[in-house]
Specification:
single chain; 86 residues; mainly beta; five-stranded mixed β-sheet; three-stranded parallel β-sheet; binds calcium ion
């Protein structure tokens, strides 16, 4: 299992070895809701978007509709709720 230690300072983390079906991003204990591609609507949320062969995750931990952390998953497509532990 892959564990992400996030510091939520608007930094960008790049993950190059994420394997769907084997690895999961673990955000348990943060109260995050997965919202797919939709925009932040308030509350702790995590969204995922696809961009040129990678998945870009954005996390709004304080619920102000602005992202606090970006994670780029290189080479990962089709990312979904099953790839997360929330
Ligand atoms: Ca925020």
């Amino acid at each position: 299992m892959f564990r992400e230690r996030a510091d939520f300072d608007r930094s960008v983390d790049i993950v190059t070895d994420f394997a769907r079906g084997q690895d999961k991003l673990d955000f348990r204990g943060l109260g995050l809701a997965y919202i797919g591609k939709t925009g932040f609507s308030g509350g702790p949320q995590i969204r995922a978007d696809q961009q040129s062969g990678m998945t870009i995750l954005q996390i709004d931990i304080d619920g102000n509709k602005g992202f606090d952390l970006t994670i780029r998953l290189q080479g990962v497509t089709g990312f979904g709720a099953a790839d997360l532990l929330l």
